[in-house]
Amino acid sequence: MLGFLQNFCADIENTTAHIKGRREATKELMLTRKIAAGIFYLALLGLIYALRDKLLPWLDNLAPGSWPIILFISAVLAMVPVIPFMVVSGILGIKYGIWGGGAMSVVASTLAAVLTYWIFAAGDRANYNPGTRHRLEIWNEHVQQRTFLFVLIGRMLPFIPAALINGYAGWFKLSFIQYVSATILGKIPTMLVFAYVGVSAVSGSQYWLPILLIYAVFLSVVYLIYSRLFPNVRGTLRVDNE
Fold it and tell me: Where are the transmembrane segments (predicted)?
């Protein structure tokens, strides 16, 4: 009986040590992924910054038939906040027209959003002091509950850096499906506007009414869809405010 108890205790100790070892290995792996992701993003940022004066002329001189290369370059440029993507989208509008250039801009910016999300999702969340952590947790709870709306509004406001939304969504691991869906929908009007600006710059058109109509119609449609899909959000907001 005594031998059985000794063996049982030894098994428990071995199991505990094994679990601790796995936890330590997981922490080391997550730290390695975090460091590797950070190095990769910083290296990409530095590379784009160093080549910023050469990339746009090169992109502009590429033939429209080289669309895979153009799409790849556009997506890479959209990943880092160095060259305003409005300029890139304008070039795409000149090459492919309003609808073709707008569609390629949406695809490129969405690819950039997905890749950046994965890069930032590779790391753990940072540790904060209790007061800061409490405030961030409250904010993140609101964002987590309304991920689609949060990302959608951010995408439709051109003055909010896309890289900031991408990094935040990945770092705090927002719902990936809602994040991508809101990114695609939110990018459509903005990219069409940027493509239109590029076409207008070449043609010399001064008619900006289509831009306003695109925004107004799209925002109306989004509001109708949102009110149907999320009918309880307004009530939730009122409860939170009370």
Answer: 31-49, 69-92, 99-120, 148-169, 176-201, 207-226
